[in-house]
Amino acid sequence: MNIIEIKNLKVHYPIRSxxxxxxxxxxxxxxxxxxxxxxxxxxxxxxxxxxxxxxxxKSVVGLEKVTSGSILYKGKDITKKENRRRxxxxxxxxxxxxxxxxxxxPRKRIEDIIAxxxxxxxxxxxxxxKLRVLQLLDIVGLDADALYxxxxxxxxxxxxxxxxxxxxxxxxxxIVADEPVSxxxxxxxxxxxxFMKRIQRxxxxxxxxxxxxxxxxxxxCQNIAIMNRGRLVEIGxxxxxxxxxxxIYTKRLLAAIPETNxxxxxxxxxxxxxxxxxxxxxxxxxxxxxxxxxxxxxxSPTHSVALPEKLAQQLAQAETKREAxx
Length: 326
Ligand SMILES: Nc1ncnc2c1ncn2[C@@H]1O[C@H](COP(=O)(O)OP(=O)(O)OP(=O)(O)O)[C@@H](O)[C@H]1O
Hints:
Blueprint: E1 2-17, E2 22-38, E3 42-46, H1 53-60, E4 68-73, E5 76-77, H2 81-86, H3 89-92, E6 93-96, H4 100-103, H5 110-121, H6 126-139, H7 156-168, E7 174-178, H8 186-203, E8 206-211, H9 214-217, E9 223-228, E10 231-237, H10 238-243, H11 248-255, H12 265-281, H13 283-286, E11 297-298, E12 304-305, H14 309-325
Parallel strand pairs: 3-8, 3-9, 6-7, 7-8
Antiparallel strand pairs: 1-2, 1-4, 4-5, 9-10, 10-12, 11-12
Helix pairs in contact: 5-6, 5-7, 6-7, 7-8, 11-12
Bound molecules: adenosine-5'-triphosphate (ATP).
């Protein structure tokens, strides 16, 4: 069952200029994307900086005005404010941000930061509210003495835990996690990802997991969409994307994952350079004459790629042959 269905979503930002501050152009930050998130899954949205991931995430939580298209939740389009209100959408869908320092109010104590959504959506007595905040701190592995501290008194990883505690306070159905570990050291990244997984199991939450790094997404996501210049260039299961990538942009993101095995580094660098060369030389094959991605074409029930139909099928057949020979 799908928890969210995104259909042909567009978010175009106006560019104003001149004495009268008129709209002279627009930035197509999100340019007609469609994908579904299933209940209980972690769906990855991956692309380089500026590809439109955050704008998509903010549209899903209702923080960004949508130009056209729809986002369906329980069959209703929540790009319309009245549907968000009617469905308690702002309680059911929460967001975790990359920059935990600026997303947590520095003047508020942790108790008040975590209690804020409870005060907005549930009207508990003071005692019950405190009990809930203590339970939430416990869930994310922080001690009770955190209650009276301020965000700057915590490490980046601890602040991200506080952000998660606030996000899960109202028992949401979906959390949009926008680069939740990108600002953290590798060892802390693993801890935060692990407890995000645990919370998902315990609460039955779905995540829209936004990242520029296919290396991080591999351990979290069952299905992945690759975003480039406001469009989706490839959608597939983890196996489709990591083991049978078809679009050159996906291959380029995969080649950018650092190689940890020292013996493999030279070969990895050579293949990264080779992919980069194809990407530079074959823009006209992989993008239309405006430099935009083609519409997605399905090459299997789970795998779609943004290429002209014939080329998509040829590449998919070559990939099947390669796998059979391997
Ligand atoms: N408020 C805005 N007004 C105008 N243009 C914007 C606005 N917000 C984002 N953009 C532009 O929209 C495009 C997509 O931005 P977005 O932040 O969604 O990308 P992103 O993939 O999340 O990148 P990053 O990881 O760097 O945040 C970029 O070209 C960006 O400059």
